[in-house]
Every structure is written in C-alpha cells, then in structure tokens.
Write a structure and sequence with these properties.
There is one protein chain. This protein has ten helices and 15 strands. It has a six-stranded mixed sheet with strand order 7-8-9-4-10-11, sandwiched between helices. Strands 1, 2, 3, 5 and 6 form a five-stranded antiparallel sheet that branches. A four-stranded antiparallel sheet has the order 13-14-12-15. Bound molecules: adenosine-5'-triphosphate. Adenosine-5'-triphosphate (ATP) binds next to strand 2 and helix 1. Adenosine-5'-triphosphate binds next to strand 2 and helix 1.
Length: about 300
C-alpha cells in the first residue's frame, strides 16, 4: 500500500508581472514525512508554501493539501483548520503572550491544553510580555507553540531557525520533530540551513527557478549520490560533463571532482579515468551539484544532467 500524500501539486504555477515565481511545480509529500524544501534565493519556496496554505492564488495548476483541493473555498477553510503556517509575523503585536494564547484557545476547537502547558514549559515564554516586545526567536517559539497546541496535522514552516541562537534553534527543531514522532504530523520546512535539515528531514524537495529538480526519500537520494575524485593521464575528456549520471563536475586539468548520481563506475566507464576516491555526497554537495550555476566559481557547476536521475 502506498502512503497517502499530505501535499500534492500538479503543474502549479504562479505568474507575477514579469516573474514566474513557481513554474509547473509537481510536489508530492507523503503523510508523516519531514520534508526539507530547499532552493536558492528566489527559487519559489515561499510562494509555493503560501499557495498551499491558500494565502496566494495560483495562476494555473492544481494542489491538494491533506487530500483537499486548495482552490475550493470550503476545503480551504478546512485546510487552515487542520494545517498550520507557522508565521511569527502573523501574531497580534498589541497582545501579551497570555492574551494571545487565551484567544487562540477560544478560536480553536481542537486546542490541547496539556500540549500548551508542555510547550510552555519547554519553550520558556514570558507570558506577561506584549508580542511587540518579543525578540524574533520568542515570536517563532510562540507561533510554533500555537501550532503545536492546535494539534495541526501539517506544519508549513518557512525559515524556522533563521536568526535564532543555537539553544532556541534546538528547542524549535526538537518541538517540530516531537510533533512528527508523537502525532505523525507532516512537516514541510524551508531553510537554507542544510546541516539542520539533513539532521531532521527524511524527504527532500529541491526547487530551482520555480520548478522541482530533485525529490524523494532523503536516504535514497543520499545513497545514490557520490562524490568522486578521478584522474586522467593527461587532460579530462571534453565529454565528461555530459556523461550519464554526472550531475556536476569541477575540472582542474587532468583531475576532476564529480558528483555522480547512480553507479559511479558505470558513469565513468569508457572515459579512461582512474577513480582515486569515492564517498557518499553530503546534502550540501547534492544541492549545489543540482542547482549550482556556471558563474558560481569555487562551487559545484551543474552539468545539467539531472535528468539522468529520472
Ligand atoms: P528565498 O530563499 O530568498 O526566501 P524563495 O525561494 O522563498 O526565496 P520566493 O519568495 O517564493 O522565493 O520568490 C520567488 C520569485 O517570485 C522571486 O523572483 C520573487 O522576487 C518573486 N516574487 C515573490 N513574490 C512576489 C510578488 N508579490 N510580486 C512579484 N514577484 C514576486
């Protein structure tokens, strides 16, 4: 039996005047996954998340969240009730933490007092302070606490740990992972903190220029990507970058460091290479290999051979 999808989009597109923020996006996130949504600045991650939560109307394409179509008005209300867009900027600034929690309690039929108390004990928030006087880290924790106590089935979290100190980062990540582990909540987390995502995520969606360029189970993706150091007697062959499975190549004379998807020996067979070292690629190496650009000197340069993964 296949796992039902918490998020599914088909050819989802958002066109702004002069900018296609998302461009035929096909997302599929299984229920219960901790999904890392990764991409360069401007890749379309925030637009995608906001579209899924009904905050932005797509130009075309389809999306379902928790099995409900986002374009349907009634379904959109149900999505907002069952999912949480954790947004520290969306808290009423004039209220104290205590007042805001009281309001959230009355507005949410599924509010879980025990979870609220447990969250408060861990997240250490000043109840008497106004939201406007909270630091960014405190606001993130408060927004997360509300989502946790609401018993959300799906958390959409854009840059959860940006600007947070290491202790608060840990608290936020632990609370998220606990929501996943204890209740099976699905998490879609967008961040540039790849090491953090590598620690918690078990599913990957990598976006570039509004499109999905790599997606799937994190362990499978890591198991299929290798960093390979290879050498040639004289010069690297000109055909190296186009070889099937070679996702990126950094070439230096007779030496090349490659990120290869699939069987590295097979990818380099017939090219006369001596493989000097081969090891699993890190998430950062995989990401840079797929979305690096030619002008990113000193970074991985994608060969455009990502299709070889399909
Ligand atoms: P970052 O990692 O920098 O937060 P992102 O992947 O979240 O980036 P988005 O914020 O979704 O990217 O933006 C995708 C593209 O859409 C960018 O080129 C951005 O300038 C553009 N864009 C986003 N919102 C609007 C808008 N309201 N009007 C016009 N263009 C927009």
């Amino acid at each position: 039996m296949t796992t039902p999808l918490a998020i599914e989009t088909q050819a989802l597109t958002k066109q702004y005047p002069g900018v296609r923020a998302i461009d035929g996006l096909d997302l599929a996130v299984p229920t219960g996954a901790i999904c890392a949504l990764i991409g360069r600045n401007g890749a379309g991650k925030t637009t995608a998340m906001r579209t899924l939560f009904g905050m932005i109307r797509p130009t075309s394409g389809r999306a379902t969240v928790l099995g409900l179509p986002v374009e349907d008005r009634h379904a959109a209300v149900a999505i907002r009730r069952r999912a949480a867009f954790v947004d520290p900027a969306a808290l009423y600034p004039w209220m104290t933490v205590r007042e805001l929690l009281r309001l959230a309690r009355t507005c949410n039929a599924d509010w879980d007092r025990a979870r609220e108390a447990a969250g408060l004990a861990v997240l250490d928030l000043p109840l008497a302070r106004r939201v406007s006087a909270l630091s960014r880290g405190m606001r993130v924790k408060l927004a997360l606490l509300i989502a946790l106590a609401r018993n959300a089935e799906l958390f959409l979290f854009d840059e959860p740990t940006e600007g947070l100190d290491p202790v608060v980062r840990r608290q936020v990540l632990h609370a998220l992972v606990a929501a996943n582990a204890t209740r099976g909540a699905t998490l879609l987390v967008s961040s540039h903190q790849l090491a953090e995502l590598e620690e918690i995520a078990n599913w990957l969606c990598l976006m570039d220029r509004g499109r999905l360029v790599l997606a799937g189970d994190m362990d499978d993706i890591r198991a299929t990507h290798h960093r390979v150091d290879a050498a040639w007697p004289a010069q690297c062959p000109a055909t190296l970058a186009a070889a099937s499975g070679v996702v990126s190549a950094r070439i230096n004379g007779a030496f090349a460091t490659l990120i290869v998807a699939g069987d590295a020996h097979m990818a380099l067979s017939g090219l006369g290479a001596t493989i000097q070292d081969i090891r699993p690629a890190t998430l950062a190496e995989i990401v840079l290999a797929h979305v690096g650009r030619e002008h990113d000197e000193a970074e991985w340069v994608s060969t455009g051979a990502a299709d070889a993964l399909a």
